[in-house]
């Protein structure tokens, strides 16, 4: 009952109402040629179809095989339901042409223009070892064990053909991707995901989310593009900031999530109001103003990020923040201009550091059991 359909024109895990948990993995491909890569994608797709339906990764399962061989499922999800698991694959720029300029899989001429490398942004503190990657898989589920089990089994299947470059666990969705969901809160304590593209916005999704043939790469029709950024929050500094200052930085009030100067979460912000007598209005450099479509050539994003806390660092500060994920039709026209505005002026920058970055082409959905992830590319 809690299984999300795997097959369809678009991959699941994009407009699917955001689940509570994330395990995101970025892989480097070491498969020696195109045939080996395609074989892996076929095996991964078959496993993903099984896993998302709540089954074991392989036909025999965790305990059904012969005792002389390693099981074709690792077993930690035995007895757990599908838990809304979605598995979403993406291809990074280096899959098309690696750092040495090699076209390892004969697909360099298929690289979509929209899959351009992201430019450097002011304030970036990127760590190369947790940035980029040839292939990503986003696992989202309502049970962390189910999401981790899926990534672990896909990595196991990929042994000898991919290596894990980095992975990120996330909890507490920081976005609503459906109007049926209440808006959750990020680790700064603010509602996050109020002004987001949502599953019900069919016309807007066509315009701002789904790639289409006229965009240039016909194989991407029905796909999308994903930008991932691990954003560390300087939590301790934030926690010593006054409530009024916090609200001015975001541009919304902390309790209700209403735009400053308005009463309700879903009221439209007023960017022209001038405050008198201590009345709260939207500051010029508020995050929601700088990120708003009106000031970024109508750019919209489907944000689908997660909170993370990876313990604490050597100075005793929480290693915590937002694993930002945003889907869109063309990052050159959406993420890039928005992040440029934010990098330039956002007061939030004093409290955050972008430490990893990647951009991915998210191919269209898998049509049925004969189809496989990325078939249209090959
Ligand atoms: C809105 C927090 C980074 C783009 C918001 C809101 C909050 C928030 C609380 C208001 C609620 C909402 O409408 O969802 C944060 C935090 C960040 C972060 C804590 C970093 C740790 C980013 C980045 C981008 C971005 C990197 C894109 C480059 C947006 C957009 C909106 C928004 C487009 C909606 C603006 C509107 O139309 O009203 N963010 N954000 N945010 N944020 Fe962020």
From TrEMBL:
Enzyme class: oxidoreductase
GO cellular component terms attached to this protein's record: cell envelope; cytosol
A Gene Ontology molecular function term of the record: metal ion binding
Textual note on the cofactor: Binds 1 heme b (iron(II)-protoporphyrin IX) group non-covalently per subunit.
Superkingdom assignment: Bacteria
UniProt subcellular location: Cell envelope
Record-listed E.C. numbers: 1.11.1.-
Recorded family membership: Belongs to the DyP-type peroxidase family.
Name by which UniProt lists this protein: Deferrochelatase
Organism of provenance: Allocatelliglobosispora scoriae
